[in-house]
Amino acid sequence: MKKSTIVILVCIAIVLGMVSGIMYAIIDRNNLQEAQINEIRKLNELIEANIVRVNEIQEDVVATSGSDVKLSPNAYIIFEKHYIDCGHTIIEKRQINDDEVNKDEEYFKNAYSDWEIESFSANEVKLYKEFQGNCDEHYLITVNDENIVVYSVDEDGNKTLKEETDIPVQYLPEEDVELLKKGITAYGQNELAKKLEDFE
Ligand SMILES: [Zn+2]
After folding, report:
1. Mean pLDDT, the chain, as a whole number?
2. pLDDT at 120
3. For the domain 76-131, what is the CATH superfamily, name and number?
């Protein structure tokens, strides 16, 4: 073979190699693009499905928390009474009255207009109100002539006899009697019971 022929053949080979390389790259890119498009399509489908689901959830939330919620017959009303002077919050709970069955939040806003509605669901209405003074859970443990007695104390310090116990004073140690004569304060039924136990 002539030297020039070899050079031409080599040139052709190089050109063919380049062309096939470029072709391959183009095909590959097309494939890649197609794969990417498929990915994007799948993602979009996923996002769409989720949007539908989110919408459904939001509709559910609206349906259960909206103003069309009505009280079930065995629902409870919880009264949270906060007393400003002593800082105590007394919680009272009662089952709803017959005439409150099937009533909605709007009804309670009117019926308990001086209370704040903290929450409203079919099973429970939570109401909150602030009061001046002390709550009625303040007690004074002291003595009369024979027994330990308990007074309720209001915010002005006025005492009302709540209970005369059958715990006699005469067998108590001198220092206990002195303490009782000064008066021992207690807050709440639990503390009152606990402090009375100390003398039994
Ligand atoms: Zn209190």
Report:
1. 84
2. 96
3. Bypass-of-forespore C, N-terminal domain (3.10.20.420)
Q: Are the beta carbons of 108 and 120 closer than 8 angstroms? A: yes
| pTM > 0.85 | no
Domain assignments of the chain as residue spans, ordered by start: 1-65, 76-131, 138-197
For ligand 1, the distance from its centroid to the CA atom of residue 88, given in whole angstroms, is 4
Q: Where are the beta strands (DSSP E) in the chain?
A: 76-83, 89-95, 116-121, 124-131, 138-143, 147-153, 159-168, 184-187
Taking only the tens place, the pLDDT of each residue in 12-59 is 676 676 766 666 665 566 666 776 767 767 766 766 666 656 555 555
Q: How far is the CA of 120 from the centre of ligand 1 (A)?
A: 27
Q: How far is the CA of 147 from the centre of ligand 1 (A)?
A: 26
Cα(6) to centroid(ligand 1), Å: 109
Residue 8 to residue 6: CA distance in whole angstroms: 5
Q: How far is the CA of 156 from the centre of ligand 1 (A)?
A: 13
Pairing of strands 89-95, 116-121: unpaired
Sign of CA dihedral 107, 112, 118, 122: negative
Token pair of 181 as six digits: 């004569």
Ligand 1 centroid–CA 160 distance in Å is: 16
